[in-house]
C-alpha cells in the first residue's frame, strides 16, 4: 500500500479526488454549538448537516465545539485534535462505498474532573445551542416511573457540588448560572438521543438538578431556556479494524473514521430561544409534530433492533444483516411489527407504518453495514424499557395481541442468562448485567423471577395475560430452544 496521508487541514488538497472535502474556509468558521458526547453517531448525523450547510456558504457562525464529561472522552479529544477535528465519513451502500471529509467541528473542550473548562465554554455568549448524545440510559431516569432519579450518586454529587459537577447536566446548570449572573441570554438544550419527547426529558434533567441546589435558578432555566424535541435516525456502526482498513484503503490516515448507511433523518421541533442554523436547507424536517415521527422511529426501528438482536445473540448470529437473513428472526421481526406494534403507530407525511416496516427491513438487511448484534443488544435494560415495554403496555390497554412482545421479552431474559445455545459465553453487555444475569438464571426454573424486576416491569407483573404468555415462552425456549419457540409463534 502507498504511504498514507495524515488527515489535517494542510493535507485536504492532497486527498484523492474521489473523496469529497470541505469547500469552505474552516478558519473563517466561528462556534455556536457545543456538543457533549461526541461519538460516531453525532459525526455521521448532526455534524454532517452543519458541514453541508457550510458547503453552501450558509450559517458559518454555527461550528461545533466537542465536549465530554467522562475520563475516556480525553482519548477521543486527543485523536480528533491531532487531525484538526476532521472526520472521514464513509457511506456504505450496496452499490459501493463513498467518502467525504467533514469539517464542521472546530475545537474540543478540555476534559477535566470538575468540568470547569466545559462550563466556561458553555457560558460563552457565542454558544447558543448545546446538543447531547449521552445514550438513552444517560438521563438519570427511574426505569419504572420514567421520572428524574434525584437519588443517583452522580446527581447527589452535583447537587452538593454545583461548581464542580460530574454530569453533562451539572455542567449545563453551572454555565446557565454564570450566564444568568452575567446578564447573558440562555442557550437551547437539544437532546439528540433516542428517547421519545427527548427535549422534555432533557428539560426535566436540567431543571430538576438545578432545583436541588438553587430553586431560583431552576425557575429561570424553566422560564427562559428552550428544549426542543427531536428525532434522529442513521445506522452508524462502531469503528473497528474493518472500518480502519476502509479509510486506509482510501489512502487516508484517520484515527477516528466513521461508517454509516446512506439513509439519514432528522426531525426537529422549531423551539430555539437563541436562534438555530437553517437545517431544513440540507434535508432536516422542521415541524411542530415531532411526536408522531419519533413514535414511529422509536417504536418500530429501535424496538425492532431489540426484537432481532436478542435471538441473534442466543443463536450466535454476528451481524444485524445476518439476523435479517435468518428466516425465523426475520419472520419474528415482521410479524411482531405488523400485528403488535404498527397498530399503535400513526402515519406521518409520506410514510405509513407498513411502509416503514419495509424500509427498516431494507436498511437492516444491507450487508454493507457491518453492525454487530452485540452492539445493538447493548444496554437492553434501557432499550427494552424505553422502546419495547411502552408498546406492550399500549397493547394490553387496547386489547391487541402481545404474544410476540412477550416472546421478545422472554428472548431478552434468555440472552441475559449469559450463554448462547452453542455453549459459548455472552460477555457482560449491560450496565446492570450482574443483576440481569441473577434474575435470568432464577427465571430458568421460575420464569416470574424475571418479571419481578420492578425497576423495569413495574406493574406489568400483575398483567396476567402478559405474565402467562411470558412464562410459557421462556419455558419453551429453555425446553426446546429459541428457534423452536420462534417457529411456534410464526405458525400460531
TrEMBL record:
InterPro entries: 6-PGluconate_DH-like_C_sf (IPR008927), 6PGD_dom2 (IPR013328), Mannitol_DH (IPR000669), Mannitol_DH/Oxidoreductase (IPR050988), Mannitol_DH_C (IPR013118), Mannitol_DH_N (IPR013131), NAD(P)-bd_dom_sf (IPR036291). Keywords: Oxidoreductase. The keyword Thylakoid does not apply. Residues 289-474 form the Mannitol dehydrogenase C-terminal domain. Gene3D superfamilies: N-(1-d-carboxylethyl)-l-norvaline Dehydrogenase, domain 2, NAD(P)-binding Rossmann-like Domain. Residues 32-280 form the Mannitol dehydrogenase N-terminal domain. GO terms for molecular function: oxidoreductase activity, acting on the CH-OH group of donors, NAD or NADP as acceptor. The keyword Disulfide bond does not apply. This is Mannitol dehydrogenase family protein. It comes from Hoeflea prorocentri.
Amino acid at each position: 500500500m502507498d504511504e498514507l496521508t495524515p488527515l489535517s487541514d494542510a493535507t485536504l488538497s492532497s486527498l484523492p479526488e474521489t473523496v469529497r472535502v470541505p469547500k469552505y474556509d474552516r478558519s473563517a468558521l466561528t462556534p455556536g454549538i457545543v456538543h457533549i458526547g461526541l461519538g460516531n453517531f453525532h459525526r455521521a448525523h448532526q455534524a454532517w448537516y452543519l458541514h453541508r450547510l457550510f458547503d453552501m456558504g450558509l450559517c458559518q457562525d454555527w461550528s461545533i465545539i466537542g465536549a465530554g464529561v467522562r475520563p475516556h472522552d480525553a482519548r477521543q479529544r486527543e485523536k480528533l485534535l491531532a487531525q484538526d477535528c476532521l472526520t472521514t465519513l464513509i457511506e456504505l451502500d450496496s452499490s459501493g462505498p463513498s467518502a467525504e471529509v467533514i469539517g464542521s467541528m472546530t475545537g474540543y473542550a478540555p476534559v477535566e474532573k470538575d468540568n470547569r473548562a466545559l462550563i466556561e465554554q458553555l457560558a460563552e455568549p457565542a454558544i447558543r445551542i448545546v446538543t447531547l448524545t449521552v445514550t438513552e440510559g444517560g438521563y438519570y431516569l427511574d426505569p419504572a416511573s420514567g421520572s428524574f432519579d434525584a437519588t443517583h450518586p452522580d446527581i447527589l454529587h452535583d447537587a452538593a457540588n454545583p461548581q464542580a459537577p460530574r454530569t453533562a447536566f451539572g455542567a449545563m446548570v453551572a454555565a446557565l448560572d454564570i450566564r444568568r449572573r452575567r446578564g447573558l441570554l440562555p442557550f437551547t438544550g437539544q437532546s439528540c438521543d433516542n428517547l421519545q419527547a427527548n427535549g422534555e426529558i432533557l428539560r426535566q434533567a436540567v431543571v430538576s438538578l438545578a432545583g436541588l441546589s438553587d430553586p431560583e435558578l431552576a425557575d429561570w432555566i424553566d422560564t427562559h431556556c428552550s428544549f426542543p424535541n427531536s428525532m434522529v435516525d442513521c445506522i452508524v456502526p462502531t469503528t473497528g479494524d474493518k472500518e480502519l482498513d476502509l479509510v486506509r484503503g482510501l489512502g487516508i490516515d484517520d484515527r477516528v473514521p466513521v461508517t454509516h448507511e446512506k439513509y439519514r433523518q432528522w426531525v426537529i421541533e422549531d423551539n430555539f430561544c437563541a436562534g438555530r442554523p437553517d437545517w431544513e436547507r440540507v434535508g432536516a424536517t422542521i415541524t411542530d409534530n415531532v411526536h408522531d415521527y419519533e413514535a414511529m422511529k422509536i417504536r418500530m426501528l429501535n424496538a425492532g433492533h431489540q426484537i432481532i438482536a436478542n435471538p441473534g445473540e442466543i443463536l450466535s448470529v454476528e451481524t444485524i444483516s445476518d439476523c435479517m437473513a435468518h428466516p425465523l428472526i426475520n419472520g419474528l421481526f415482521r410479524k411482531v411489527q405488523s400485528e403488535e406494534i404498527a397498530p399503535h403507530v400513526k402515519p406521518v407525511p409520506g410514510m405509513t407504518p407498513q411502509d416503514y416496516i419495509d424500509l427498516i427491513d431494507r436498511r437492516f438487511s444491507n450487508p454493507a453495514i457491518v453492525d454487530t448484534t452485540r452492539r445493538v443488544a447493548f444496554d437492553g435494560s434501557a432499550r427494552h424499557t424505553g422502546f419495547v415495554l411502552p408498546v406492550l403496555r399500549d397493547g394490553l390497554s387496547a386489547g391487541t395481541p402481545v404474544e410476540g412482545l412477550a416472546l421478545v421479552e422472554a428472548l431478552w431474559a434468555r440472552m441475559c442468562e449469559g450463554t448462547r445455545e452453542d455453549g459459548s459465553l455472552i460477555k457482560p453487555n449491560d450496565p446492570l448485567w450482574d443483576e440481569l444475569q441473577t434474575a435470568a438464571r432464577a427465571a430458568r426454573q421460575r420464569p416470574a423471577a424475571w418479571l419481578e424486576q420492578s425497576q423495569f416491569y413495574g406493574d406489568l407483573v400483575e398483567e396476567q395475560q402478559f405474565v402467562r404468555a411470558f412464562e410459557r415462552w421462556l419455558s419453551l425456549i429453555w425446553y426446546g430452544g429459541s428457534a423452536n419457540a420462534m417457529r411456534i409463534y410464526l405458525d400460531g
